[in-house]
Design a protein that fits this description.
The chain is an alpha+beta fold and 140 residues long. Helices cover 22% and strands 41% of the residues.
């Protein structure tokens, strides 16, 4: 499982049969890559921004940047999902194949703002918010 898949797995996990608040907000609609434009809102996608080798001294690892994009037709809903995403992912640990340490932290939030170029029949506004997360991972 790579880093992006590990993030989606963490999002989908349901300890004790209970999903996290972000999963409940999105009803599980998070995909890898770009957000699918099928007029089903809210939804989210996790994208790979960078993968940089970080091999210094005896350490073998990577520094990764991932962007979580969330879209909704409600400003109040997207603000709540932004807060739930921060609570879920900031300073969390992930299980990534081949790596013993995978630490993720929030580095930047962009938005919420009106999505430009998104037209939804019968909907005046579509809102978007982007959260950037840095991952430091070390090989096993």
């Amino acid at each position: 499982m790579d880093a992006t898949q590990a993030i989606i797995y963490y999002f989908n996990s349901a300890p004790g049969g209970v999903h996290n608040d972000l999963w409940n907000d999105l009803q599980g609609r998070m995909e890898e890559g770009e957000i699918i434009d099928d007029n089903t809102y809210p939804r989210a996608a996790i994208q790979n921004i960078t993968d940089v080798s970080d091999n210094v001294f005896a350490k073998k690892g990577k520094n990764l940047l991932r962007q979580l994009s969330i879209v909704s037709t409600s400003l109040s809903e997207i603000k709540l999902m932004r807060d739930h995403a921060e609570t879920l992912f900031d300073n969390c640990q992930l299980n990534i194949t081949g790596y013993s340490l995978a630490w993720m932290r929030l580095t930047n939030i962009i938005g919420p703002s009106r999505a430009i170029g998104v037209l939804v029949e019968g909907v005046e506004n579509v809102w978007e918010c982007h959260l950037e997360f840095e991952l430091d991972i070390q090989q096993s």
